[in-house]
Design a protein that fits this description.
The protein starts with a strand and ends with a helix. With 580 residues, it is of the alpha/beta class. Helix 6 packs antiparallel against helix 7, helix 16 crosses helix 20 and helix 18 packs across helix 23. The chain folds into four domains: 176 residues, Alpha-Beta Complex (Spore Coat Polysaccharide Biosynthesis Protein SpsA, Chain A), CATH 3.90.550; 79 residues; 149 residues, Rossmann fold (3-Layer(aba) Sandwich); 162 residues, Rossmann fold, CATH 3.40.50.2000. The longest helix has 30 residues. The strands form five sheets. The protein has a seven-stranded mixed beta sheet, with helices on both faces.
């Protein structure tokens, strides 16, 4: 009699609760999946749901198609992050009994009040409740329709005969926001889709409109709709709803600029690791504007690294003598505020120049400035880069707020395949399958680990059957000579060009280093790492932690022989924990 239909993608964390709440109520559960990779299909199988695969189109179209797959005369449509409350379960059970005892009910559809949980608090004011939605209907009596033709947001089920809609009173629970980052992602998503819908309607925005709409939204939600009655939760929701409104109209205003903005440059002319931590900017730009050409401007030693990122379309090398590398750009973002290039971009007439406003060169020559200081504040370098994109009217730091988001924005592929990298090292097939990279050098950029401790850890790895490969530049060889002379150690110090090093790091089973380029490169390729860090500014992991899988060890203590006072035992435990 009753089919429940759900559309989903990567909802393995929400579906168990949703499907469990339907036990004993639904005669059939139909899930339309649009390419999940997180175990969603397995969850559906465990709960006996029927799964159909279909590429996502729009919410309204996807939900209509899902309803068409239902085999029973009545359809209940749920989102994966919703569940049937105990009161609603009883009410729907009684409704089924009533519907089964008559040939035709006097109504075609039923609306349900929806109660949302925000970080564990049920929200009953601020326009969030009762938030009635038509979710139950008889087949053929209506359909899902977007707010405007072709729109992406605000789809609603619209009945053919509005007067034949009744109300149910049990709450449909909406478990939308488990963490604050969930709210940030949602507001970034909805503000972007809302801007696209507004543009489709031919609506426009001016300089003040984003700010006026932000103030209006806060006043409406916090005061007029009594959001304050939910305490700090209600005020917080009103604040971030206002931010979402701001970003919607800000993106509407910027839409015409992006219609003509073909090429965006990112300047990162300092260390290798810094380049890796800024590369998510390229992925974020492509996520918002797939058609844009991303140009990475860096020093020669970072060119292969930038070229390995799948979101970078062109690499331009700046060796200190060619300021013309910024010419021909429609916009440029200074992830590193190189003064010469900041002035050159202004002189070349690059229309949009985004940089921190806390340097003299950028304060004078950038025309969109970010006035945020990280002094004493552990803001991660990747997040700071994403926040700089706000100067291009791209809400990247909201859409990708956590470290778990950033690695997915890299899309790194080494310039050499595994076999070519193996040939460059001279390792046998057997040794190549057991490589652990130890990188003791750091060019003084961080307070590293002593050579003696690296050496002791290397011996433990070798005794356990792993191949200890030591990497570094020729300039770093001096203090390592006695260690490198040991026959079991594979000495690659100063012997690899950058493509070969990238191939080794991408293939290795583990990389162990202090906060330095090879650590970040290995992590970017998905190789597990053990990072050794000083636990305070300016080298703290809160700002410089690697983006991929691994373990970070930190200390504020200095060892008697110099370097970080992290024990060989602790580093060994972390390493073997990742290797098993």
């Amino acid at each position: 009699m009753l089919s429940v239909v759900i559309i989903a993608k990567n909802e393995a964390h929400n579906l168990p609760r949703c499907l469990q709440s339907l036990k004993g109520l639904a005669d059939e559960v139909v899930v339309v999946d649009s390419g999940s990779t997180d175990g969603t299909l397995e969850v559906c199988a465990q709960h006996g749901a029927t799964v159909h695969q279909r590429d996502f189109t729009t919410y309204a179209d996807q939900k209509n198609w899902a309803a068409d797959q239902a085999s029973h005369p009545y359809v209940l449509s749920l989102d994966a992050d919703e569940s049937v409350s105990a009161d609603l379960f009883k009410e729907l059970t009684a409704w089924k009994t009533s519907a089964a005892s008559t040939d035709e009910l006097p109504f075609d559809a039923w609306s349900l009040p929806r109660l949302t949980s925000y970080l564990g608090t049920w929200v009953r004011h601020g326009g969030w409740y009762p938030d009635r939605k038509i979710r139950l209907w008889r087949q053929g009596t209506g359909s899902w329709t977007p707010a405007q033709p072709g729109g992406m947001l605000h789809e609603a089920w619209v009945p053919n005969v509005p007067s034949r809609v009744a109300k149910l009173e049990g709450d449909l629970h909406h478990h939308s926001y488990h963490r604050f980052s969930d709210h940030l992602r949602q507001l970034a998503k909805f503000s972007t889709l809302g801007a696209a819908d507004a543009k489709l309607q031919g609506r426009s925005s001016h300089l003040l409109k984003p700010w006026l709409r932000m103030a209006f939204q806060w006043l409406k939600q916090a005061v007029v709709q009594s959001g304050w009655r939910d305490g700090s939760t209600g005020v917080r929701i009103a604040r971030w709803s206002a931010v979402s409104a701001h970003w919607k109209w800000r993106q509407v205003r910027a839409a015409s600029a992006w219609d003509t903005r073909q090429t965006v440059g990112v300047v990162r002319t300092d260390a290798l690791g810094d380049n890796v931590l800024s590369l998510p900017m390229a992925g974020a730009l492509k996520a918002h504007h797939p058609e844009v050409k991303v140009v990475w401007i860096c020093k020669p030693y970072a060119a292969d690294v930038a070229g390995a990122c799948g979101h970078v379309d062109e690499v331009r090398i700046w060796d200190g003598d060619r300021p013309e590398v910024v010419e021909g750009l429609d916009a440029v973002v200074f992830a590193f505020p190189e003064p010469v290039l900041v002035r050159a971009a202004a002189k070349a007439g690059v229309p949009v120049r985004v940089a921190t406003g806390r340097r003299w060169a950028t304060a004078l020559h950038a025309n969109r400035r970010v006035w945020r200081s990280r002094k004493g504040t552990p803001v991660h370098e990747a997040f700071q880069g994403l926040r700089l994109l706000h100067g291009l009217d791209v809400p990247a730091a909201l859409r990708f707020p956590e470290a778990t988001d950033w690695h997915g924005l890299l899309a790194m592929t080494p310039p050499l395949d595994s076999r070519a990298a193996q040939v460059a090292t001279g390792l046998s097939d057997k040794s190549w399958s057991r490589v652990v990279v130890l990188h003791p050098g750091n060019h003084g950029s961080a307070n590293g680990w002593s050579v003696d401790r690296f050496r002791a850890l290397g011996r433990r790895l070798i005794e356990a059957g792993w191949v200890a490969v030591v990497t570094g530049t020729e300039a770093e060889r001096g203090p390592l000579e006695s260690w490198l002379s040991e026959p079991e150690v594979v000495d690659l110090v100063g012997k690899l060009d950058m493509p070969s090093l990238l191939g080794v790091l991408a293939h290795a089973k583990l990389c162990i280093a202090s906060s330095t380029g090879p650590l970040h490169l290995a992590s970017a390729f998905g190789t597990p790492v053990v990072g050794l860090y000083q636990g305070q500014a300016p080298f703290w992991p809160a700002r410089w932690a690697p983006l991929g899988p691994g373990v970070v060890l930190e200390t504020r203590m200095e060892a008697p022989e110099g370097g970080l006072d992290i024990s060989v035992q602790d580093a060994s435990a972390a390493a073997f924990g990742l290797l098993t």
